[in-house]
Design brief:
9 helices, 42% helix, mainly alpha
Length: 178
């Protein structure tokens, strides 16, 4: 977490488990991705770091690399067989994040490694194509369309109820409403 490569090397030499999780499930590889430290990520992968380790919120190192727009780490994790379709229930896949950021190199790599161009995030059912269009990234839109992204996909909505009938809450006394 502190991006202290010397300490990590020392701990690994002492036999500390490279995949030991913190309280929220984050591993050293998650922190290497968070800190944009490719050399540390390489060291951890060489020592057997689990590339698809998830936190309590189903966050993977690949998801973090996509969020940070760190294509070098993203590529390295994909080369190490990271699953591009593991994602938290509501925050979208690494492909959706790369599409929203307009990172065409990451989008290309994720698609080449099996990312689902039609995956939908859990909150509203948005797709990578929706985010790329919404944030005006034409190169990414083209890539997604070439990967057969569904142009007919729709988001989910739900009804909202708004209380408009009363000037004051029922719990207030009749004469005390302001």
């Amino acid at each position: 977490r502190n991006d202290d490569v010397a300490a990590v090397k020392s701990l690994l030499a002492a036999g500390v488990d490279v995949n030991a999780p913190s309280g929220d499930g984050a591993t050293a590889l998650h922190w290497a991705a968070q800190n944009d430290d490719l050399a540390l990520a390489d060291l951890l992968l060489a020592k057997g770091a689990k590339v698809n380790a998830v936190t309590d919120l189903d966050i993977t190192p690949l998801w973090i690399a996509a969020s940070n727009a760190n294509t070098a780490i993203l590529l390295r994790l994909l080369e190490a067989r990271a699953d591009p379709n593991i994602a938290p229930p509501t925050n979208g896949t690494p492909l959706m994040i790369a599409a929203r950021l307009g990172d065409s190199q990451a989008v290309k790599a994720l698609l080449a490694h099996g990312a689902d161009p039609n995956a939908q995030e859990g909150a509203h059912g948005q797709t990578a194509l929706m985010w790329a269009v919404s944030d005006r990234h034409p190169e990414v839109v083209r890539q997604l369309l070439e990967a057969h992204a569904d142009v007919r996909a729709r988001t989910r909505s739900w009804p909202q109820r708004v209380l408009l009938c009363c000037q004051y809450y029922e719990s207030e006394a009749d004469g005390d409403a302001t």
